[in-house]
Amino acid sequence: MDLVYLDNAATSFPKPEETYRFMDGFYRTHGVNPGRSGFDLCMETGQMVDDTRKQLCRFFHGTDPDRLVFSYNSTDALNLALFGLLQEGDHAVTTTVEHNAVLRPLYHLATRQGVEVDHVPFDARGFVDPDAIRARFKKNTKVVAINHASNVIGTVQPLAEIGRLCRERGIHLVADASQTAGKIPIDVQAMNVDVLCFTGHKSLMGPTGIGGMYVQEGVELRHTRAGGTGVRSAQRPHLDEYPWRMEYGTPNVVGIAGLHAGVKWLEEKGLHAIEAHEMTLMRRLVEGLRGIPGVTMYCQDDLANHIAVMLFNVHGFEAGDVGTILDVDHNIACRTGLHCAPMVHEQLGTDNVHGGVRFGIGPFNTDAHIEAAIAAVTEVAAAGATR
Fold this sequence. Notes:
Helices cover 39% and strands 15% of the residues. The protein is an alpha/beta fold. It folds into two domains: 4-14 and 270-385, Alpha-Beta Complex (Aspartate Aminotransferase, domain 1), CATH 3.90.1150.10; 17-268, Aspartate Aminotransferase, domain 2 (3-Layer(aba) Sandwich), CATH 3.40.640. Strands 2-8-7-6-5-3-4 form a seven-stranded mixed β-sheet, with helices on both faces. Helix 4 (100-112) links the parallel strand 3 and strand 4 (116-120). Helix 8 (271-290) runs parallel beside helix 11. The two termini are 28 Å apart.
């Protein structure tokens, strides 16, 4: 039986063939260190890196490609952003829908560097009320950090409205776009996002180990690292100019190449077409699981403002056991547990049953995959009813 891959919220798989081919071909012919020498191959490699900056800047509707900074992933970018903006005496507002990529840096800032942090809960539908965030604003509020879409329940937060409220108060909005970059259109200008953090290996169709952030003009992040840039090597302190201000050492050239090819593929296919395909499958999946006795879904009553990510549990089974059965007996790959987002499960009450089962749909999933998943969960639920 062919693998039914429904773990796209963890990483997209497979990637487009164009991603694999471009990474392989480029690294075979241009696997040198960009920006460090003046020979032709080095210059050509650096041009690809610069072209990818421009490509992603356009993709997110930025205004200055130099402020598109590459990092390892969104967690790395969020650390650079949060530690670069917050210091002792500052206040930050975040939510209970966050991934540990936001929760843990803020926890460290709170416990070790004297930053005050408030967590705003989501409502019964899975959304955060912008007014509830505004109600937490204080005179010393410096940052609002929010997950654009939940990696657990798939709800897309009203980023533009939250950003407007932040802009009115001079508060920086840091957005974790790990789940939305490449799935739905993002316009950092219209959404009033000050720092957009993204990863390449999910819906941007690139490999693991590459990500980045876009930092709006006027937003300055403090240096939290230092190292080589290949530019002005005699200067003792790290450079202040972007992109070098937030980039350190040799870049992940093969990762940037894969990201370049992945975004090109997305632009050719069209985000709206990809989203329509995924959400059509999502509606079929939710409809199918809703009719199965013993299956509980979370925040899936209305799929407006959702991405194709869902959470469920099966009565009579631990979530991890369901995942094992789906894998061993049905060759279905999914994610179980707390999904690196413990506060979501604490608020849902699923932390008491070790989390839930997550299906994440991607552009290469098919109707047959969804039918196989529904049939498999039906079989598992029937077994659970007898326990």
